[in-house]
Amino acid sequence: MDKSILLEKFTVIGVNHRLAPVPVRELFAMSNEQLSDLYKDASMNGIPGMLVVSTCNRTEVLALTSDAQMLSILLTKHSNGTMDAFREYGFIKHGEAALKHFFRVSVGLEAQILGDLQIIKQVKEAYQSSIDNVMSESVIHRMMQSVMRTHKRSRNETSLGTGAATTAYAAVQMAKKEMKSFRGKKVLLVGAGKIGKVTCKNLLSMGAENVTIVNRSVDRAEDLGSRFNVSVSTMDKLDIELAKADLVICATGALKPVIHASHFELADPEADRKVLIDLSVPRNIAPDVDSLPFVSLINMDMLSDAMDETFRARESNIPLVENIINEEIDEFCNWLSSLKVVPTIKALNEKFDDIRKYEIERFRHKMTSDSLEQVEYLTRRIVNKIVAHSIEHLKENKNNQEELAKVLQEMYKIGPEDTLK
């Protein structure tokens, strides 16, 4: 099967943690409004299907177009990124390479934390956003079915999901390594969203006993606080909470920093060194905080799961997962191939049905109404069986379906105008 022809319309572009540092990735992060505008603009430019995966480690656009230049222009137009930054740090993949990359991202092979459990949720959110913006046509829908099946198989048939593989887990693990122990340490968690919830759970499971949650929405902070039985404070007391904290983990959905160096005016510069971890892109902790002598600032690029004892087990499963990806992509390609012969089958069916109707019309006056009804039923069954044989033959010969379709077109004089009906 010539996959390059089948997949030529798939293109993926973007920036991710493998090529672009946090200061660059945050430029390409988009708000919901920017994302909606991107979808609208793409549709106006004739792109029939597209979805955008936006996480702390990547902003990637997968679209049914071979025009990567147009995609990169749209991405920079609807984000704060520039073409110069994209040329230096971005990537472009076409065809099968684009599809394979998206599958690898979805199962966690391209994640900073190998096998990241959160990535498939983010891919689902991207798909839902594509649906909401009317940019998920049949090919994107079928591709997502294959992606979800691939992810499920990667968890059921391999050990890629072994251990707590998440960015939040890696962050808490690194914090514990930096601080030796959470015993007697005061922890401040800024943000009560999805990552905040997972982070809080991991903190408590690893021995943190004194945790305080701060969030712009007090109700959300209180909900999380009551769920895990931890303290809650408010953003207007952020300076006080930062001064008391030994460890600060920040994970909000803010598009600008919420913690600056000026927030530490109440902190004792002679006290033990504070560990700050920023799990957000765009960054939630301003770069100027790193200049404070009593602070150790860790951002997304510094996180790793290599210290996790289950990492090696996950790593050994990479070849198995890659085989699953290849199998599912082959199946998806077969489906794409079948799309090319569907118009021919439809035209062939209409051709036979026209012949059937013409012959019945010639003898209609010689038949009773009951006989006519029986003949109609019988001839329809004959036509359906003949067409079914053609369909079965095409399915059995997946590698040369297009050639067989051309033979059928020539044999039964089915022209391009017929297959486009």
Give short descriptive properties of this protein.
421 residues, four-stranded antiparallel β-sheet, alpha/beta, Beta Polymerase, domain 2, Rossmann fold
Task: Describe the protein's topology.
Layout lengths: L2 H4 L3 E7 L5 H7 L3 H13 L5 E6 L2 E7 L3 H10 L5 H7 L1 E4 H13 L11 H14 L5 H19 L10 H13 L6 E5 L3 H12 L4 E5 L3 H11 L2 E3 L4 H7 L2 E4 L23 E5 L16 E4 L12 H5 L2 H46 L5 H28 L4 H11 L4 H4 L2
Parallel strand pairs: 5-6, 5-8, 6-7, 8-9, 9-10
Antiparallel strand pairs: 1-3, 1-4, 2-3
Helix pairs in contact: 6-8, 6-14, 8-14, 9-10, 14-15, 14-16
Q: Describe it for me?
A:
This protein has 421 residues and is an alpha/beta fold. It has 17 helices and ten strands. The strands form two sheets. Strands 7-6-5-8-9-10 form a six-stranded parallel β-sheet, with helices on both faces. Strands 2-3-1-4 form a four-stranded antiparallel β-sheet, with helices on both faces. α6 crosses α8, α6 packs across α14 and α9 packs across α10.
From the alpha carbons, calculate the radius of gyration and give it in angstroms.
29 Å
Helix content: 40-55%
Mean pLDDT: 89
In total, how many domains does the architecture comprise?
3
Tell me the structural class. alpha/beta
Encode the helix/strand succession as letters.
Answer: HEHHEEHHEHHHHEHEHEHEEEHHHHH
Number of helices: 17
Order the strands across the largest sheet as they lie in space.
7-6-5-8-9-10
Question: What kind of sheet is the major sheet?
Answer: 6 strands, parallel
Provide the CATH topology of the largest domain: Beta Polymerase, domain 2
